């Protein structure tokens, strides 16, 4: 049983990973092809944006 005081702990990394997985699932279900290409996955995960932000 959980304590009454409300000791909810949030793992922000885990929440971000869950959100990214959800985005991939949505993209895969909407895709015309059987599998997402590596380029499509990178686009969904915004890999190019992250690389640009870390380079600059």
Which helices and strands occur, and which strands form pairs?
Elements: H1 12-30, H2 38-45, H3 47-55
Helix pairs in contact: 1-2
Please explain how this structure is put together.
With 56 residues, the protein is mostly helical. It has three helices and no strands. Helix 1 crosses helix 2. The N and C termini lie far apart (48 Å). The model has no long low-confidence stretch (mean pLDDT 84).
Secondary-structure element order, N to C: HHH
Globular, elongated, flat, extended or rod-shaped: what is the shape?
flat
Overall number of strands? 0
* Number of H- or I-type helical stretches: 3
The rounded distance between the terminal residues' Cα atoms is: 48 Å
State the share of residues found in helices, binned by percent: 55-70%
What is the average of the pLDDT values?
84
Structural class: mainly alpha
Q: Percent of residues in beta strands?
A: under 5%
Instruction: Indicate the radius of gyration in whole angstroms.
Output: 17 Å
Q: Characterize the largest beta sheet: strand count, sense, and whether it forms a barrel.
A: none
Properties at a glance:
56 residues; mainly alpha; 3 helices; 64% helix; flat
Brief characterization of the structure:
The chain has 56 residues and is mainly α. 64% of the residues lie in helices and 0% in strands.
């Amino acid at each position: 049983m959980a304590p009454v005081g409300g000791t909810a702990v949030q793992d922000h990394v885990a929440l971000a990973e869950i959100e990214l997985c959800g985005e991939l699932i949505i993209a895969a279900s909407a895709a015309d092809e059987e599998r997402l290409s590596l380029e499509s996955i990178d686009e969904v995960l915004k890999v190019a944006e992250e690389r640009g932000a870390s380079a600059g």
